[in-house]
Amino acid sequence: MTSIHPAGASPRQNRRRPRHPAAAVAEVRPAARADVVEVPSEATFAELGVPAPVIEALRRLGVVTPFPIQAASLRSSLAGRDVLARGRTGSGKTVAFAVPAVAALGASGRPTRPGQPRALVLVPTRELAAQVAATVQPLAAAMGQRVTTIYGGVGQGPQVAALNRGVDIVIACPGRLEDLIGQRHCRLDAVEVCVLDEADHLADLGFLPGIKRLLDRTPADGQRLLFSATLDHGIDGLARRYLRNPVTHSVDEVDAPPPLLEHHAFTVDPGHKAAVVRELASGAGRSLLFTRTKHAARKLARQLASDGVPAVDLHGNLSQSQRQRNLAAFADGSVRVLVATDIAARGIHVDDIALVVHVDPPTEHKAYLHRSGRTARAGAAGVVVTVATPAQQQEVRVLVRQAGITPASAQIGPGDPRTVALTGPVAPLRYLPPPPATPPAGGRPSRSPRPVARPRRRPR
Questions:
Q1: Which residues on neighbouring strands pair with residue 248, listed in sequence order?
Q2: 323 and 200 share one domain
Q3: What is the pLDDT of residue 447?
Q4: What is the total count of domains within the chain?
Q5: E runs forming strands in 58-201
Q6: pLDDT tens-digit series, residues 251-269
Q7: Which residues contact 412 (CB under 8 A, 6 or more apart)?
Q8: Domain of 416: which CATH number?
Q9: Which residues contact residue 122 at a Cβ distance below 8 angstroms, ignoring those fewer than 6 apart?
Q10: In this structure, are 216 and 335 located in the same domain?
């Protein structure tokens, strides 16, 4: 089931900022002071100022107690302050920005106009857009607000239609949103609240210039909330340029590994690697396996599925409908193994992933931490296993040392009892039906070539 974590909201202060031309926005503002507000960790959503309808919507989602990042940031964001929040993925950031966004729109009472959203959430990936929308939608509905997602890889028709009907909150990837703005389907001059989710990942993917263009289109007096695991890759400059006197909250050390993770490094002979990986994926729990390449992810998922281990793949060569279908199957338990490239290392929020396996060790320690962070979410425990050949041992040693981790190391082979100790008993074999035919990413269904018309012979 997709992760949904707590948050809160209250009437936004009616403070206005002086407007200034977009050219002035390009100037780097003085570094904002780290104004940190301490809030008792046991504070309830009601005590933080969250509106009653939103509290009830959270309760229906099973969210009753604020997570640390929510308890820390909600009082500030609900008061209309700009917020710069740092916390690792899985710490409850989605609810932490969703609640103040819907509360602010409810308090302002401004009408919704076609093509002019009142709140904007920028995210790095399509999958994250869909998952953020799943959390925001019920909270917005409780306040009588409409939500839509905008991202590439799918036809823009439904997105344009939703904008024309009028939406309050848009959750978007920067590229497609800029396309629709260029086509005059959307304007950002009515945005009251702007959120950057996983800002460091947006920067990693090269979206920083587009983010600046989009923020320059939003009113300078709007509220801005920036959530990021780190402040490198230009994120610190982005915060200084667009956030005014922000309240800064940090609930985790930058790049800190999740505390309830059990790390293992297994060295295997190259000829035994496939068998060991299969044994790791054969437990009854939900497992996420990472490979370096799209081809390797596709090949491993097919091999596991043919061996009776229900598995699907997730990578950039799949169409958007395939990616959504495979991720949904993993989230709802239809399959228990997802084989993915680093596209799933950030922004994939699925609860109860018991095991993460680095089938191919990542190239740098931050990727190791982001991959590993898919388990041990929301206070749960988890296990991470790195599978390395003898030739990769030194690479893995450097990787985990840079990540600040001391894994339990062992040389293992097929049938090793330490594998069963991590995964539990082998689940019964189950074979998947063949997936429905879907056109490749970015393409259209192939059509049979039309017969070539032969020239008619003129009668003699």
A1: 84
A2: no
A3: 39
A4: 2
A5: 83-86, 119-122, 147-150, 169-172, 193-196
A6: 755 455 555 678 999 999 9
A7: 266, 267, 268, 276, 418, 419
A8: 3.40.50.300
A9: 172, 173, 174, 177, 194, 195, 196, 197, 202, 207, 211, 214
A10: no
Phi first, then psi: what are they for 399, rounded to 5°? Answer: -60, -50
Distance in angstroms (rounded) separating the CA atoms of residues 199 and 233: 9
Q: Which domain holds residue 345?
A: 261-423
* 3-state SS class at 333: coil
**Residue 267 phi, psi dihedral angles, 5° rounding:** -100, 125
199/242 Cα distance (integer angstroms): 13
CB 374 within 8 A of CB 287: no
C-alpha 55/C-alpha 379 separation (Å) is: 21
Kindly indicate the confidence band of residue 319, based on its pLDDT and cuts at 50, 70 and 90.
confident
CA separation for the pair 139, 357 (Å, rounded) = 35
Instruction: Please give the order of strands across the beta sheet that includes 193-196.
Output: 147-150, 169-172, 119-122, 193-196, 223-228, 83-86, 247-250
Contact at 8 Å (CB) between 396 and 265? Answer: yes
Flag whether 17 is in a domain. no
In the structure encoding, which two tokens stand for residue 409, read together? 């190391």
Q: How many Å separate Cα 348 from the centre of its chain? A: 5
pLDDT in tens, 169-204: 999 999 999 999 999 999 999 999 999 998 988 887
Q: Is the dihedral of CA 175, 179, 182, 186 positive or negative?
A: negative
> What is the rounded CA–CA span in Å between residue 131 and residue 2?
7
DSSP at 113: B
Q: Look up residue 89 and give its two tokens.
A: 């993925």
Do 100 and 191 reside in the same domain of the chain? yes
